[in-house]
Design a protein that fits this description.
Oligomer: single chain
Radius of gyration: 39 Å
Strand content: 5-15%
Number of strands: 12
Length: 659
């Protein structure tokens, strides 16, 4: 377990080489470049300017390519279903990548796609407009006069619109009083099209009346011809738009054959944009650009080698100031690396703390196994994770961690006799396979359903051991940092007192004599007094002793922490009990010895055990993480470190083929 030691560096390069230097740094992915605002050199030399940069053009190109991808995606042949979920990136070689980003035709494809997309959008708008006009005119299809003639009469006013059927009588009476005439055009459901004819002098009063009864005005202004002719013309326009749209879609299908090239171009511009953003936020003079950042101490020599290839550039280590936040990266042996997922999920440790990965890994795998305690489910998870490792792209640490846990689950299930619940017993009973029952018993340590107290004691023992490891880790780390007072007063006192109390209470069960257990009880008093006096080492003595008494009272919290590990027993027995329930259900379904019964029995066994393995595996994962985060980490880990984030090339759509 190790937290990588970081070195602070400053690269000074001539402006003519700055882009190439940053490209090399991004390609190697070694360094975290910090912004001008965070850089210490800006505090020492406030007169320095920010380099700035021409990022707008790159950003615009990136936006164009992204929009082109969205347009072409429905027409492209891309992986679907499980294949898309596990391996969403296309595997290519570097030659293809280089050819694509150097080919100007790819950007022309993007430009053509955007033009077609714009034309498609306009055609959709036109289609919607013509279709809306058809629907607008539909109630007036039987009107046999040209609509423009309604606006060419000198002495009368024609008002066209739709009126609710339930208000016709009321409106008719009021219009008669205003010497206006209503002419129904056609029957149209609840809203009936009417033409209202009135003298121009009465038009204002008529309109006021119609508005009061929710008369829906309809205007034909700008239209010529009968409503039927206009409907026919607009329907033809709709069909014309659809024909043109189909033609545009055919063009997009052809362009989508180069979908992969557009994806490659997107990843190229995304990385280029990220690089230029970093370049624009660095400090510079008239002729020089300064890159300040962090690199792992072990990689500093590589950094020097990279910069040495540029004659107008130089790199040097700089002093790490006390107020600086040092980024954190962890590095473990290959056997522990999958469990870094848990550490990163919790949050990185501070740069002065320890990496908890190697400490949590064996406990995490063991606790996961005990929460399942079924060898059959271990086999299911092993098969599933092996499939994912083979098919999945990208970071597979989580899958490798689950595979490690499932291997231990296989062992835990064998030791507790769990093979799909009581599957072995059921098979032995049904077919007389006594050899199977004997094989199960030969591997067993105990049966949790018969001897639950063994599981109870095992869970508490492992929980207590887990907490002790956390305290010992903190104790050793404080000694390593030469914080001897903290090591003695904050960890050693608790280690001595808690173990002395355990030996006092349970020592006879471990074979200790009553005299020894009595001595252990007296030994516990010494660290108890030290906790009261020295656990709080700041402030006045009254406050320190009061806080010390509270700390001593927190002994009961350790008891609660240990009891929390009983969830291992609870989850393990629930998993086994549910598996046995599915076996009983399947046995009951097959007792009739019919084909349908056997089919139902098989379905219950397959669906039930897969469901139980999935839900129990999820519970095991969640509760095991909780034991690490709540009971274990607080004993020695503060957390809250800033993740080391080197500038490197990321690829959203492509994956390079390994040599």
């Amino acid at each position: 377990m190790a937290i990588c030691k970081m070195a602070k560096f400053l690269v000074a390069t001539h402006k003519s080489q700055s882009s190439a230097v940053l490209e090399a740094l991004q390609h190697n992915g070694l360094c975290q470049i910090i912004s001008a605002e965070e850089a210490m050199v800006s505090k020492e030399h406030p007169d320095l300017d920010v380099a700035g940069g021409q990022t707008r053009e790159i950003f615009n190109n990136l936006a164009k390519v992204e929009k082109a991808l969205e347009t072409l995606k429905p027409f492209a042949e891309t992986p679907k279903g499980m294949a898309a979920a596990l391996a969403p990136k296309t595997v290519i070689d570097e030659n293809l990548y280089g050819n694509v980003i150097d080919d100007p035709q790819v950007m022309k494809i993007v430009q053509q796609t955007l033009e077609i997309e714009s034309q498609v959008e306009n055609l959709h708008n036109d289609e919607e407009h013509y279709q809306a006009t058809v629907e607008y005119l539909a109630p007036w299809a039987s009107l046999d006069v040209n609509v423009e003639e309604l606006y060419q009469v000198e002495k009368v006013t024609y008002i066209t619109g739709l009126l609710g059927k339930n208000k016709v009588t009321e409106v008719q009476q009021k219009l008669n009083e205003l010497e206006a005439v209503m002419e129904k055009v056609a029957e149209n459901g609840n809203l009936i099209p009417y033409i209202i004819i009135c003298h121009k002098e009465q038009a204002a009063e008529v309109i006021k009346l119609l508005r009061s009864v929710d008369f829906e005005m309809v205007s034909f202004e700008g239209m010529k011809g009968t409503a039927a002719q206009l409907i026919k013309e607009n329907k033809a326009s709709v069909e014309n738009c659809r024909t043109q749209l189909q033609g545009k879609r055919d063009i997009l299908k052809k362009l989508a054959k180069d979908f992969l090239k557009v994806q490659i171009l997107y990843d190229h511009y995304a990385n280029l944009h990220e690089k230029e953003l970093k370049a624009s936020d660095c400090l510079a003079t008239e002729k020089t650009v300064l890159f300040e950042g962090w690199v792992k101490e072990n990689d500093y020599k590589k950094l020097e080698d990279i910069i040495s290839e540029y004659p107008a550039s130089q790199v040097s280590k700089t002093k790490i100031e006390q107020e600086e936040v040092i980024p954190v990266e962890i590095k473990n042996k290959s056997i522990w690396q999958p469990f870094e997922v848990v550490t990163r999920l919790y949050g990185m440790p501070q740069h002065f703390e320890i990496d908890p990965t190697a400490l949590l890994a064996p406990f995490f795998a063991l606790f996961f196994a005990l929460c399942l305690t079924d060898a059959g489910y271990g086999l299911i998870i092993i098969a599933f994770t092996a499939y994912l490792i083979r098919k999945m792209q990208g970071n597979k640490k989580l899958i490798w961690m689950l595979l490690s846990c499932s291997v231990l689950t296989l062992g835990a299930g064998a030791l507790t006799g769990g093979w799909f619940g009581d599957g072995c017993q059921q098979l032995a009973s049904a077919f007389g396979w006594n050899w199977l029952a004997k094989a199960r018993e030969s591997m067993m340590w105990f049966d949790p359903m018969v001897e639950p107290m063994i599981f109870f004691k095992l869970s508490l023992t492992l929980g207590y051991l887990h907490i002790m490891v956390g305290l010992i880790a903190a104790f050793v780390h404080n000694l390593h940092r030469k914080m001897f007072v903290a090591a003695i007063c904050d960890q050693l006192t608790w280690l001595v007192m808690l173990n002395a109390i355990v030996l006092k209470l349970f020592g006879t069960g471990f074979g200790l004599s009553p005299q020894v257990t009595a001595i252990c009880g007296k030994v516990a008093l010494v660290p108890a007094v030290m906790i009261v006096l020295f656990s709080q080492r700041q402030g006045g003595w009254v406050g320190r002793i009061a806080m010390g008494c509270y700390q001593l009272f927190s002994t009961i919290f350790y008891m609660g922490d240990v009891l929390s590990y009983l969830r291992l027993m609870a989850l393990g027995m629930v998993t086994g009990g549910l598996a046995m329930a599915f076996n009983v259900m399947a046995k009951t379904a097959g007792e009739g010895k019919t084909i349908l019964g056997y089919v139902i029995m098989i379905i219950i066994l397959l669906v039930g055990h897969i469901f139980n393995a999935a839900i129990s595996g999820l519970s095991a994962f969640v509760h095991t993480i909780r034991l690490q985060f709540v009971e274990f980490f607080p004993k020695f880990l503060e957390g809250g470190g800033k993740q080391f984030e080197p500038l490197k090339k990321e690829y959203k759509y492509i994956h390079f083929k390994k040599d």
